[in-house]
Specification:
Blueprint: H1 3-12, H2 16-21, H3 39-53, E1 57-61, H4 69-83, E2 88-92, E3 105-109, E4 112-117, H5 119-123, H6 128-141, H7 158-168, H8 202-211, H9 214-243, H10 249-294, H11 298-303, H12 306-313, H13 315-348, H14 352-366
Parallel strand pairs: 1-2
Antiparallel strand pairs: 3-4
Helix pairs in contact: 1-3, 1-4, 4-7, 6-7, 8-10, 9-10, 9-13, 10-13
GO molecular function, one term: ATP hydrolysis activity
Keywords: ATP-binding, Membrane, Nucleotide-binding, Transmembrane, Transmembrane helix, Transport
Pfam family, one: ABC_membrane
Amino acid sequence: MDTTKYEKAIKACALDKDINSFDHGDETEIGQRGLNMSGGQKQRIQLARAVYNDADIYLLDDPFSAVDAHTAATLFNECVMAALAHKTVILVTHQVEFLSEVDKILVMEAGQITQSGSYEELLTSGTAFEELVNAHKNAVTGLEFSNDEQVEPQKVDQNLLEKSHGSLSTKENSEGEISMKVLPGVQLTEEEGTEIGDVGWKPFLDYLLVSNGMLLMSLGIITQSGFIALQAASTYWLALGIRIPNISNTLLIGVYTAVSTLSAVFVYLRSFFAARLGLKASKAFFAGFTNSIFNAPMLFFDSTPVGRILTRASSDFSVVDFDIPFSIIFVVAAGLELITTIGIMASVTWQVLIVAIFAMVAANYAQVDTIF
């Protein structure tokens, strides 16, 4: 971060007093929608971000609408006329008092540009613009204000602005003032809770209970185990066929084809049961999700980023739909296959149990951490 440019942007947008009043200064969390900011503060923060960005062209859409007359004059003088002095600035505004300082004016009426030119040219054109400016001056003349203060070069009279803005502007409200009231020491947006590594079986058990998917999971495990058994059977049949003398190729290939076809059927059934499990779980979780969203207080939406809510309703539900059901079935089936394999090996050579125990302990410590 460029500290010098940052401080200039803060001062140009009249944010220095506001920042000093915050509990944590410029480290104060303002939330995604500026929950603890007034309308004027939010507008000036947006303007300060634009100034710090140091772009070549700026489009300012009525940046003085939510601030009082004094702050509006400060923003115009310090920000538009000073900080952005060497930039191309397109300013959309209803504040007539600022028009004498700009290079070119475009007057719009009913969505169409009706006049264009400098301030002096439009004043002498005898059009609606001249009438508007004269009406503004007449309204200001009727107000009581002091003429003792001298107008600095290229500066707009602060008292004149305060009187005229207060009499003519219809958008003046309490939010426009520089508010010194913020929520003390409140963390608006809570950090997302994450767990790394082994999260235990409870989340998966809750998943099955919410979706009422114990039957589907059991069927998925059975079909996955059947697929693994058929794969082993096909390999065993090919090895056995070599040992059997005078076995015909037709019989060898026919049995192998039948076993492979049955394996494909079991794979299809496993995928079907896993998909059904994911669908039931997704419906159950999404119903609870939407119910919570529709019944949540407004504070929840003010303090929770929209991206986090959208993530819950999109990518997180894709995990519920696909990743979790297939993972549960694969893990349980793989565990059964591992136990079966170790049992068969131990029946021939019991010493393999020693190696298996050490291997499982080592795998438990060497597992890759996963963030949930």
